[in-house]
Design a protein that fits this description.
The chain is α+β, with helices and mostly antiparallel strands. The chain is built from four helices and six strands; from the N terminus they run H-H-E-E-H-E-E-E-E-H. Helix content is 27%, strand content 49%.
Length: 120
Amino acid sequence: MYELFNTGRLDEMLRLVAPNLEWDWSRSLGPEEGIAYGPQGLRRFMTRHWEMWESIEMVPEKIIEAGENFVVFVRVRLRGRDGIEVEARGPHVATIRDGRLVRYQLFQEREEALAAVGLA
């Protein structure tokens, strides 16, 4: 999924998500915050998100499995359309059922993400 995200292969990403997907970036400190529902909601979210940046690279640095949940610690590098570069690190929680992504939550703090899956 991260490789598909990094290369902008949205149609392939959408094949990996459940029809009832919840993409929760309500905790985002960036310009694109909110919750998207279903594949079409994710398409709209991603299209807006990618339009803001010249390039985005999201690299998983550590993954902790907790049942159907995965806490993923990522490093994100973004380059704005005016050339400004930004780097951030943070945790996400991905929930996988029947081989499809059903929920993806962005968190700001490690402890929040671990608590969300019962590991804190």
